[in-house]
Structure formats: structure tokens, C-alpha cells
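Just wondering, can you check both lines?
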Amino acid sequence: MEEKVTLMTKMEHKLALRLVVLGATDRRWLWNALCSLSPNLAWLTAALSEIYHENNMIYWTYDPDDNDTSGVMEAIAENIDRAPTPLGVDRFVVLVQQLTALPQESGEISLERAAASIKYRCVIRSWDLRGDRWHDWKKGSSKQELLAILQQAVPTPEAPVTLVRAAVLGAAFARIQARLGTI
């Protein structure tokens, strides 16, 4: 069953991203106001703050001698398996994006260069995997689905960087609670 993306959900997503940039999860008064006015928007803001957190980003760069997905798969599994789940929030999200090469690039690039130039690259292809960590990741088929996605997203000279964001959404609430002392 396919979900319909409505204009309101696009606007909410943009607003939540803007709230992340403004630091809504770092400022107690803003977080409390957001939770009071729109709990759904607060949830989306917390989720996006976790998805876009730098600790949840994995850079996979082009190497002509290595097309193995096992190292990336292990890094993703570690992010998902080790994340806290306060209040029983056990949902995970894995976003995989193949990114373009920059005009001056040829061949291999370093991880530092990939991270520094990420905002200048365009997305060529994108995949999204979501689920429940207990049912879908540990006992279900999500690992096999992710492996199939990674085999399609292997970096190439035309798309030398693959950015993977792997996050458990409960970790967002753990971060908020650690910063603000309350949820």
C-alpha cells in the first residue's frame, strides 16, 4: 500500500527541518512550546534531528578495487542495534542516497573530501527503508532488503559518494532528555 504525500505533509516536513536548524530540540522554551502547540510536529522535528545528526551519517566513497557492501552494512547495523529506545520508541529509518561527482573530481575521493563537499552534490537516486527494530530488523527481512538496496547503491565514478543515514528515532528523545532534562 502506497502512502500519499499531501501538500500539508510536505509543508510539515519543511517546517520541521527549519525547526531543526533553529535548534528546537536544543532550547527548552522552544521545545516546550512546540510540544504544546503541535505534538505531531514536535515528533517529526525530533525524528528529523536524529536522522540528520552527524553521528548517523555513513559516507561510502568510490574505490575501484572494492565493491563490497559488508563494511557499510556493519556500520548501519551497529547504528541501529546500539541506539537507545526510551519510552519504547523502536522505529528505525535508513536513507540511502547516491550523489553526483563534482566537476573537478576523477577517481577515488577521501571520506573527508566527501563529507566536506556533501552540500554541493546532487542526489541521483534515493532509497528509504523504515521499520520497527524488533520486528523488522532483528526478526524480519529488513536486513535483506537493505542489502539489496546497498548492492544498487555501490559508488561509481559517475556517483562517487553514497550517503547513508541510519537512525533509531528513540535516540532523538534520549538526546533531548539529556539536553533538556525532560521530554
Q: What stands out?
A: Strands lie at 57-61, 91-99, 123-132, 161-168.
